[in-house]
Amino acid sequence: MSPARTRLIVNADDFGLSQAVNRGVIAAHRDGIVTSASIMVNAPAFEHALELARAHPALDIGVHLTLTELAPVAPPGTVPSLLGDDGMLLPHALHFVRRYLLGTVRLDEVRTELDAQLARARARGLAISHLDSHQHVHALPGIARVVADLAREHGIRLVRYPLERPFARMLRRAGSVRRLAEQLALSALCMVSPLRRLPRADRFVGFHFGGRLSESNLETVLRCLPACGTVELMCHPAEAEPGGPHARWGYAGEAERAALTSERIKALVRARGIELVAPRDLRGT
């Protein structure tokens, strides 16, 4: 293998969120360029995702650590600082960050919950190759240290480092300025985070077009990849699901699935000499 070749991990987030998301992830892997997926162990369709993962062993699996929206895995009485009045994890990252900035999120409870999520994945026989998180909350100071420690304790080598470098083409779409501001804020967190010292891909892409990775946007991303090194591309494929979670977030999961399985996109990957890899392929690097 040439050292100057670009190696691309294409990771589908939210595996387990719904059956429509699960089917979209599998289609994007079986018929397209997705090489790995991050599973949500406390999501409604976790069992369905497990069945699909076992039926498709070439799909590498990580854990999508979750501190928002869903039910806790740990007993609620052990993680009260993470919960709303309804006993669920807080409804959005903005609610979580607000509580975090007020200093009322207990890091020992974050550790308890995330350790319980990893334990559930292991108990179901999953070989976990990598970690990332729902809405990137693992990049927050303090929480990043907890995740780094858990990765080491569980023998998980790779942790997502969601620092995405801006490029000029990002400004061409509607709403790009706000998204770019969010991207720069996340990158600023990453730059002072212990995550930067952990084994990881050399580059990360996909936040800017998160939930809107159409064929055109995916082509833009692929054409802007560096000439060498390992890159992780985040994506959110799904089948059509009116009223489903991706639809509520404004994500175009069906368009992402179509883009990730597009013959034109696969031809572009080949033409650029991009090697598709999974996180488990990087263990020796």
Summarize the structure.
The chain has 285 residues and is of the alpha/beta class. Helix content is 37%, strand content 14%.
The helix fraction, in percent, is 25-40%
Count of extended strands: 8
Q: Main sheet, how many strands, which sense, barrel?
A: 8 strands, parallel
CATH class identity: Alpha Beta
Q: Would you list the SSEs in sequence order as H and E?
A: EHEHEHHEHEHEHEHHHE
The CATH architecture can be given as Alpha-Beta Barrel
Percentage beta strand:
5-15%
Give the CA-based shape: globular
CATH fold-level topology: TIM Barrel
Number of helices: 10
Decide which structural class fits the backbone.
alpha/beta
Structurally, the number of domains stands at 1
Uncertain segments:
none
Q: Between the first and last Cα atoms, what is the distance in angstroms?
A: 13 Å
* The CATH fourth-level homologous superfamily: Glycoside hydrolase/deacetylase
Summed over residues and divided by their number, the pLDDT gives a mean of: 90
Computed CA radius of gyration, to the nearest angstrom: 18 Å
Can you give keywords for this protein?
10 helices; TIM Barrel; 37% helix; 8 strands; alpha/beta; 8-stranded parallel beta sheet; 285 residues
Describe this protein's structure.
- By secondary structure, the protein is an alpha/beta fold.
- It has a single domain (6-282), classed as TIM Barrel (Alpha-Beta Barrel).
- 37% of the residues lie in helices and 14% in strands.
- The chain has helices spanning 19-30, 46-55, 93-101, 107-123, 143-153, 176-191, 215-223, 245-248, 253-260, 263-271; strands at residues 6-15, 36-39, 60-65, 130-133, 158-159, 203-205, 229-235, 275-277.
- Strands 1, 2, 3, 4, 5, 6, 7 and 8 form an eight-stranded parallel beta sheet that branches.
- The longest helix has 17 residues, at 107-123.
- The two termini are 13 Å apart.
